[in-house]
Description:
Layout: H1 3-8, H2 13-27, H3 32-60, H4 70-75
Amino acid sequence: MTPMIASILNLMGPDMMVILLIVLLLFGAKKLPELARGMGRAVKEFSAARDEIERGLGQSGGAGVAQPSLLDAKSELPPPRQS
């Protein structure tokens, strides 16, 4: 767990040690490196996807998004019922 995440969750020394001990007991020493690698890959994929989306939004510059107008909204309403 990074220090930034630990500070956000307000986990300090003894609390963090207890959590790490529980994780060690649950998964075992042999599984921890594999779990860390998996978490690293997931974070890397997430960052790459986020960067790709930000790049796509930056290239469109908002010009590709159609702005709704009141006239369009009124034309989509069904005609009033006549009784």
